[in-house]
């Protein structure tokens, strides 16, 4: 059954409570998937709401002035509360909820997890963004830059793992996974082939894809078709609309 997507003119959903907040997302946003994974890892009883980013509901902006996903919202005796920006939401989820810790206890290791997320955001994030939106002319350079960024990632992931920063799943895994698992889509979009080697990235990707929290954050709108196939369709449609504009 297709999941309802709330659009312009929709009624604001119940906003839940601090313990069981509303998680506002789309099925295909990698940033929102970061928070989706963190919520799943912590075992938070959230209420998931899909919104239409082309026709945003009016009630969305008071909760997030950027009008972006992910957004977390809840109500208590003091009123309505909301948080947004994926990495801030993930730090909040880690701080606010019980459940397995997504940061190491040791302060140096905690800082290293945050550093990995920060460096990923500076290196792989922009290279991925450029590749996914590359025109035919731009594709070779964008592919080369992404290859270099992924080679950096291969050396930056903890060498023995199995997770990004060592033996345990951390906020780094939650932050990196949604982007890395989309890299294979670039083959269909710009003919990009993931470079040979990258053994650490490949081994890590297999481990996180097998993680229940990640599987539960993969909800294609049409359950009869694959998630990747539908993601590819949505990227193609988005690119066509950008080029037509
Ligand atoms: N820096 C933000 C980026 C979130 C973001 O760009 N989300 C996109 C969907 S993937 C969005 O909501 N776009 C709607 C818009 O910008 O109008 C984060 O980390 O949460």
Write the layout of secondary structure elements.
Layout: E1 5-6, E2 22-25, H1 30-42, E3 47-51, E4 71-76, E5 79-84, H2 86-96, H3 107-132, H4 139-156, H5 171-180, H6 185-190, H7 199-209, H8 212-215, H9 227-244
Parallel strand pairs: 1-3, 2-3
Antiparallel strand pairs: 2-4, 4-5
Walk me through what this model shows.
The protein has helices at residues 30-42, 86-96, 107-132, 139-156, 171-180, 185-190, 199-209, 212-215, 227-244, and strands spanning 5-6, 22-25, 47-51, 71-76, 79-84. α3 (107-132) runs parallel beside α5 (171-180). The protein folds into 2 domains: 5-100, 3-Layer(aba) Sandwich (Glutaredoxin), CATH 3.40.30.10; 107-210, Glutathione S-transferase Yfyf (Class Pi), Chain A, domain 2. 48% of the residues lie in helices and 9% in strands. By secondary structure, the chain is an alpha/beta fold. Glutathione binds next to α2.
In short:
This protein is α/β, with parallel strands linked by helices and 245 residues long. It has helices at residues 30-42, 86-96, 107-132, 139-156, 171-180, 185-190, 199-209, 212-215, 227-244, and strands at 5-6, 22-25, 47-51, 71-76, 79-84. GO terms for molecular function: glutathione transferase activity.
What CATH architecture of the largest domain would you give?
Up-down Bundle
Percent strand: 5-15%
Strands in their spatial order, largest beta sheet: 1-3-2-4-5
Which descriptor suits the 3D outline?
globular
Indicate how many domains the architecture comprises: 2
The major sheet is characterized as: 5 strands, mixed
Low-confidence stretches: none
Order of helices and strands: EEHEEEHHHHHHHH
User: Which CATH first-tier class of the largest domain would you pick?
Assistant: Mainly Alpha
Mean of residue pLDDT? 96
The ligands bound in this entry are: glutathione
Number of strands: 5
CATH fold description of the largest domain: Glutathione S-transferase Yfyf (Class Pi), Chain A, domain 2
Count of helical regions:
9
Quickly give the structural class.
Answer: alpha/beta
Ends apart, CA distance between termini: 33 Å
Using only C-alpha atoms, the radius of gyration works out to: 18 Å
Keywords: Transferase
Pfam family, one: GST_C_2
GO molecular function: glutathione transferase activity
Protein name: Glutathione S-transferase
């Amino acid at each position: 059954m297709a999941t309802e997507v709330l659009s312009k003119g929709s009624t604001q959903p119940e906003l839940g409570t601090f313990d069981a907040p509303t998680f506002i997302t789309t099925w295909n946003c990698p940033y929102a998937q970061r928070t989706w994974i963190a919520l799943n890892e912590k075992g938070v009883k959230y209420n998931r709401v899909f919104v239409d980013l082309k026709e945003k509901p009016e009630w969305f902006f008071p909760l997030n002035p950027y009008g972006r996903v992910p957004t977390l919202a809840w109500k208590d005796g003091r009123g309505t509360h909301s948080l947004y920006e994926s990495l801030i939401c993930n730090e909040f989820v880690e701080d606010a909820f019980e459940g397995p810790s997504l940061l190491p206890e040791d302060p140096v290791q905690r800082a290293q997890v945050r550093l990995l997320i920060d460096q990923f955001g500076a290196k792989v994030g922009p290279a991925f963004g450029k590749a996914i939106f590359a025109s035919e002319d731009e594709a070779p350079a964008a592919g080369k830059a992404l290859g270099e960024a992924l080679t950096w990632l291969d050396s930056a992931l903890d060498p023995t793992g199995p997770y990004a920063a060592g033996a345990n799943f951390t906020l780094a895994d939650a932050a990196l996974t949604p982007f890395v698992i989309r890299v294979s889509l670039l083959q269909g979009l710009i003919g990009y082939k993931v470079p040979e080697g990258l053994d650490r990235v490949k081994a890590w990707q297999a481990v996180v894809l097998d993680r229940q929290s990640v599987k539960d954050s993969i909800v294609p709108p049409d359950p009869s078709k694959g998630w990747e196939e539908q993601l590819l369709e949505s990227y193609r449609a988005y690119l066509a609309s950008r080029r037509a504009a």
